[in-house]
Amino acid sequence: MSTRQGGAREEILGRIRRAVEGAPEVEIPRGYRTTTDVADLVELFAERVRDYRAIVHVLPAAGVPAKVAELVAGRSMIVPDGLPAEWAAPAPGVDPRSADGVLTGCAVAIAETGTIVLDTGPGQGTREQTLVPDYHLCVVRADQVVGGVPEAVARLDPARPLTWISGPSATSDIELNRVEGVHGPRTLEVIIST
Amino acid sequence: MSATFLGMPGDFPTNAARAVKDSQLRYNLRKATHTIRGKRAAVVDELPDWHELRAAGKAVKDETLRHLDRYLLQLEEAVTAAGGHVHWARDAAEANRIVADLVKATGETEVVKVKSMATQEIGLNEALAAEGITAYETDLAELIVQLGDDFPSHILVPAIHRNRAEIREIFLDKMGDAPPGLTDEPAALAEAARLHLRERFLRSKVAVSGANFMIAETGTLVVLESEGNGRMCLTLPETLISVVGIEKLLPTWRDLEVFLQLLPRSSTGERMNPYTSTWTGSAEGQDFHLVLLDNGRTDVLADEVGRQALRCIRCSACLNVCPVYERTGGHAYGSVYPGPIGAILTPQLRGMSSELDASLPYASSLCGACYEVCPVAIDIPEVLVDLRAKAPHGAAERAGMRVAGWILNDQARLARAQHAAIRLRRLVPKRLPGPLSAWTDTRDLPEIPDESFRDWWEREG
């Protein structure tokens, strides 16, 4: 239910209607690219993610379980429900405040910008689980990689809470020097399964 | 910080004259603005369709503003349907009242904040403090500003006027748990802030944010950030209160495909910012409140020339290319919106009754660089000129302009005036006397040539 305290809503709407009365209608030109012509999506995605100083491995699907096992060895990891069973056994109950890291899949990945999108769907955990631990290991399947931002927006469901991740946590607030690792995971490691 | 940020006292020329004497400030600003300018240019050049994206961004915003009433109602309905609560605030006092009451209803006396221009504009932190509620800024730059008892000086990098040595001093002085051996390495400073804020994030029950975009069609809010402090505040607390200007709307989910390309590249010069969060209503069980803020925006909307300022997506590209901002810094503008966009937005939002606000339309050389880089094509010089005409002018200036108009409107009169000026040119002082000195205090008088162009043309032509 909305709060309509003291008629603020009606007053603001009235001011808007008076302000734009007689203003011309606007056509929106959509001449920009809605598909991205990229020869090798995986190669471009890997290169762009590396640009953010994330660690990237490109592997055939058969090699993923062994690589995951190698990378999570010795760490207490959150493994949410819904990941392919061969990657790792689920461990969803681990407290994110004490876990060393989290292993997830993703909803979509964007080659041109090197972005991974999580939508809290199967194998992606909650927003808290992918934020609080210091290490995020993300497995991206090649068929989840799209060319550009428009293709990703079209694939995503706005009803789900989304987190778009482009590299590890970073700040540029001190003399505009990029420093990785402020509040989010300081290490982002990505396995691209081909 | 004071509830209404008026920066330094006085008008822009006075503030600017003081700022340009600060060589440390000029050095910090020059280094920072030139770094980010270069990064922006490189990632914008990468996109073959930048001009098309810019044209679409401009039109989407204009279309939104044209039907803002309809889109706000659509947004309200969608947010409410998704379990959120929508509140409307005519001005700063009303918005602050709503937020304070919402916080009190939770029984909490502390809130964590995501960097937000809207809450700075309304002086929310000070209003909450008056109600016994402490607001903690969690963005690194905002933390530097808050700990230093300072004012933000840039939209994106509020502590841009501080260098690493100054930041180290602030942390050692004001941050109780700063490590004693803290160096001025950016990584060490960021680590100190991480440790300082970690526990606060994990125990806070209420967060306050703004939003970069709201989607009318779906009721979705969007926040772009880098550090993860935004994600912490947006997801961990039980209650989330977002205070958002009514102009931050986009009609459809699809429109994000334009703005998620325009904003990061224009703002930080990155292909994409590290983190973008979107949520619709009460996500993952959180109690969500949206406060829609007018606070002068409908007045701006009513101005046919000036309303284009409401397209602004707060990227700050105009600040980084502005030769005036580069030399004066953000404080001289006396508003949370500094630089070229501030020079047109602030006097429209606040009116031009104060000396400072009336001087802001003059805080520009009209070089046009701000228009060139603006991702939503706001013609800032056009609005500046329009506001100059509307700004109050002194009696001497009005008289001077009337005389100039009288002379320039008649060829014979102009020729006689030029001949008189040439004869008397040795008598012209470097500075004009009396009220006219306001003109020469900030400008050098041009040298008067020994022959007018018209006479030269007559003789040679």
From TrEMBL, chain A:
SUPFAM superfamilies: NagB/RpiA/CoA transferase-like
InterPro entries with a match to the protein in the record: FTHF_cligase-like_sf, LUD_dom, NagB/RpiA_transferase-like
Residue ranges constituting the LUD domain according to the UniProt record: 98-192
One protein family per Pfam: LUD_dom
Domain of life (superkingdom): Bacteria
Protein name in UniProt: L-lactate dehydrogenase complex protein LldG
TrEMBL record, chain B:
Domain Lactate utilization protein B C-terminal residues, every copy: 390-461
GO terms for MF: 4 iron, 4 sulfur cluster binding; metal ion binding
Superkingdom of origin: Bacteria
Residue ranges of domain LUD in the record: 74-292
InterPro entries, alphabetized: 4Fe4S_Fe-S-bd, 4Fe4S_Fe_S_CS, FTHF_cligase-like_sf, Helical_ferredxn, LUD_dom, LutB/LldF, LutB_C, NagB/RpiA_transferase-like
A biological process from GO: lactate metabolic process
Listed PROSITE patterns: 4FE4S_FER_1 (PS00198)
Keyword flag Iron-sulfur: yes
SUPFAM superfamilies in alphabetical order: 4Fe-4S ferredoxins (SSF54862), NagB/RpiA/CoA transferase-like (SSF100950)
Domain 4Fe-4S ferredoxin-type, residue spans: 309-378
Keywords: 4Fe-4S, Electron transport, Iron, Iron-sulfur, Metal-binding, Repeat, Transport
Protein name: L-lactate dehydrogenase complex protein LldF
Organism of this sequence: Nonomuraea muscovyensis
